[in-house]
C-alpha cells in the first residue's frame, strides 16, 4: 500500500503532488519556494492519431506571468480549526516573485482578534489561544512598518470534529499525505509550524473514522517526505527537505537523504538506512515482494529492502517526473506518470522502460487503478492552457491507451478514488484555467462518478468546499476522507 498525496486513491496509487503544488508551499514558505501547481507543470492532452476524435476545446487566451503586489502579505496558517483553549502560532510573510518562483520573507507584525476577548486572545508575536465558546472568529495580522497592510485569518473553534478539520494541525496547501492503516485509522502526514528557533516541524496524526476524531501521533523536524505502508504494518518515511527561518527572516533549506521507520504499534520513530540521493517530490511504492520503489525528485530511482534496511540504486528514468504518480499494476510492474513519456518499472529486472504508446499530450491529470487492472487517467491542464475533458484507459496487458470518454466538467487538480463498488469518484479541482502564473483557477465542488462497466461519467454528490489537490482516502465504510488542498479543508464524502 502506498502514500496518497493530494489526489489520493486507496488502490495502490502513490500520489506526490507537492505542497506548493499549487498549493503548495504557500502556507509553508521555503527559501525560494518552488511553489508550483503541479498540475500546471503537466502538459496537456491532445488526441492521438490512433484515438477517437475529440471535440475541439474553446480557445484560451495565453497565460501571462505576473508578480505579487509589492506589499503582498500572507499569513501562515491561512485558516485554522482549533479546539477550546488550544493555541497556535501565526506568522506574517511578504511574498516576492511569480507563481512558479515564489519566495517569502518573514515580516515583523502585530496581532489582534476582531471579536475581542470573546474570540480568544493573541499575543503580540502571534500566539493565538482559542476561547471556550464554539464559533467562527477572525485573527488579524498587521505589518509593523505599515499597520494598514493587514491579513485576516478565519478561525473555527469547536469542542469536537466531524467534517470541518483537525484542530491540532494546519494541513497546508496541498501538503498532505494519507495512509489507511491496518487498524482502519488514517495516518496523516502534513501540517507544520516553526519552533522558536525557526525550525520547520511536521506533525503526524491519526484519524479514527469510528469516532470522527483526530489524535496527535508524532513530530519530525523535516518536511515533504514520502510515507509508505510496509508489509509488516510499519511506515517508511523517506527523503524530504529541511526548512529554517532565522530572526531576520532569512530562510535556508536542503534536500535530505534521511529515512526513518514509524512503528505503528508504539508511534515511535527509528532511523533506518539513508537514501543514496537526497530528494523530495518523489513517489514511494510498496512492491509485491515487500521492497519499496523510490522514484522521482531526480531521474534516479532506488529500492528499499525492509529486511536489511538498505537503499540500493536501480535503473534511471528517461525523464524526471513532475511530481507524478506511481501506480502498482496487477502484474507487479509500476506505472510512473507525470512526465512525457510515462515509464514502467519492472521489479524482476529492476529497470525502467518507456511507454511508447502514450497518446500525444497525455502526461497529466489524475490516475487510479481500476478493479479490472486498467488505469484511468482523467483531466489535467493542456499545454495550450485549456483544462482537459478527456479520460483515457491504460491497459497493462496490451500496453495500449484507449479513450474512456469525457469528464462532465473539464478539471485539473482533482482527486480520483476507487470506490468499493468498482466505480471511481472524481472530486474537486479547478474548472477554469489559471489566468496567470500567480493566480489560481476557480475551484469547483462538483464530483462525478465514473463507471468502468459502461464507460460513463454521472453527476455525484457535491463537496462542501470547492478546491483542488486534496488527499483522498477510501474509508472502511465506503466513504472518502478528503484533507488539505487549496483551500485547506477536512471533509467526508458519502456515496
| CATH architecture classification | 7 Propeller
CATH topology: Methylamine Dehydrogenase, Chain H
User: Structural class, judged by helices and strands?
Assistant: mainly beta
Question: Per the principal axes of the C-alpha atoms, what is the gross shape?
Answer: globular
State the share of residues found in helices, binned by percent.
under 10%
Strand order across the biggest sheet? Answer: 1-13-14-15-16
Overall average residue pLDDT: 77
The poorly predicted ranges are 1-68, 97-103, 160-174
Largest sheet: 5 strands, antiparallel
Would you write up a description of this structure?
This protein has 495 residues and is mainly β. It has a single domain (4-64, 162-493), classed as Methylamine Dehydrogenase, Chain H. The chain has 1 helix and 41 strands. The strands form 11 sheets. A 5-stranded antiparallel β-sheet has the order 1-13-14-15-16, with no helix packed on it. Strand 9 (121-122) and strand 10 (127-129) form a beta hairpin. It starts with a strand and ends with a strand. The model is unreliable at 1-68, 97-103 and 160-174 (pLDDT under 50).
Amino acid at each position: 500500500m502506498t502514500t496518497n498525496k493530494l489526489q489520493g486513491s486507496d488502490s495502490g496509487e502513490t500520489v506526490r503532488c507537492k505542497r506548493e503544488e499549487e498549493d503548495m508551499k504557500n502556507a509553508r514558505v521555503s527559501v525560494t519556494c518552488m511553489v508550483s501547481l503541479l498540475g500546471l507543470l503537466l502538459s496537456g492532452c491532445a488526441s492521438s492519431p490512433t484515438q477517437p476524435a475529440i471535440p475541439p476545446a474553446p480557445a484560451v487566451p495565453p497565460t501571462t506571468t505576473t508578480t505579487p503586489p509589492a506589499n503582498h502579505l500572507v499569513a501562515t496558517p491561512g485558516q485554522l480549526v482549533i479546539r477550546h483553549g488550544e493555541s497556535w502560532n501565526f506568522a506574517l510573510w511578504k511574498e516576492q516573485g511569480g507563481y512558479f518562483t515564489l519566495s517569502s520573507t518573514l515580516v515583523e507584525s502585530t496581532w489582534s482578534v476582531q471579536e475581542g476577548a470573546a474570540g480568544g486572545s493573541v499575543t503580540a508575536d502571534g500566539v493565538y489561544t482559542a476561547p471556550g465558546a464554539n464559533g467562527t472568529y477572525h485573527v488579524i495580522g498587521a505589518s509593523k512598518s505599515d499597520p494598514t497592510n493587514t491579513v485576516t485569518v478565519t478561525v473555527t473553534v469547536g469542542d469536537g470534529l466531524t467534517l470541518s478539520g483537525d484542530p491540532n494541525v494546519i494541513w497546508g496547501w496541498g501538503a498532505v499525505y494519507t495512509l489507511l492503516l491496518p487498524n482502519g485509522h488514517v495516518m496523516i502526514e502534513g501540517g507544520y509550524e516553526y519552533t522558536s528557533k525557526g525550525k520547520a516541524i511536521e506533525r503526524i496524526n491519526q484519524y479514527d473514522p469510528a469516532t470522527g476524531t483526530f489524535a496527535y501521533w508524532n513530530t519530525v523536524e523535516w518536511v515533504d517526505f514520502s510515507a509508505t505502508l510496509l508489509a509488516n504494518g510499519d511506515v517508511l518515511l523517506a527523503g524530504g527537505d529541511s526548512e529554517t527561518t532565522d530572526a531576520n527572516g532569512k530562510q535556508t533549506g536542503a534536500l535530505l537523504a534521511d529515512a526513518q521507520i514509524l512503528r505503528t504499534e508504539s508511534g515511535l520513530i527509528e532511523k533506518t538506512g539513508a537514501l543514496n540521493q537526497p530528494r523530495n517530490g518523489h513517489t514511494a511504492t510498496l512492491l509485491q515482494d515487500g521492497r519499496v520503489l523510490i522514484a522521482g525528485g531526480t531521474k534516479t530511482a532506488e529500492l528499499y529492502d525492509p529486511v536489511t534496511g538498505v537503499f540500493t540504486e536501480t535503473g534511471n528514468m528517461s525523464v524526471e517526473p513532475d511530481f507524478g504518480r506511481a501506480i502498482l499494476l496487477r502484474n507487479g510492474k509500476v506505472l510512473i506518470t507525470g512526465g512525457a513519456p510515462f515509464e514502467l518499472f519492472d521489479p524482476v529486472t529492476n529497470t525502467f522502460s518507456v511507454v511508447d504508446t502514450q497518446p500525444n499530450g497525455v502526461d497529466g491529470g489524475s490516475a487510479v487503478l481500476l478493479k479490472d487492472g486498467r488505469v484511468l487517467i482523467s483531466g489535467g491542464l493542456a499545454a495550450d492552457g485549456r483544462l482537459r475533458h478527456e479520460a483515457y484507459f491504460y491497459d497493462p496487458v496490451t500496453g495500449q491507451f484507449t479513450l474512456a470518454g469525457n469528464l462532465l466538467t473539464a478539471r485539473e487538480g482533482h482527486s480520483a478514488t476507487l470506490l468499493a463498488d468498482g466505480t471511481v469518484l472524481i472530486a474537486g479541482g479547478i474548472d477554469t484555467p489559471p489566468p496567470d502564473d500567480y493566480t489560481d483557477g476557480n475551484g469547483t465542488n462538483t464530483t462525478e462518478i465514473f463507471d468502468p462497466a459502461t464507460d460513463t461519467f454521472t453527476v455525484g454528490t457535491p463537496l462542501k468546499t470547492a478546491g483542488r489537490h486534496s488527499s483522498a482516502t477510501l474509508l472502511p465504510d465506503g466513504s472518502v476522507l478528503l484533507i488539505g488542498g487549496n483551500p485547506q479543508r477536512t471533509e467526508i464524502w458519502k456515496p
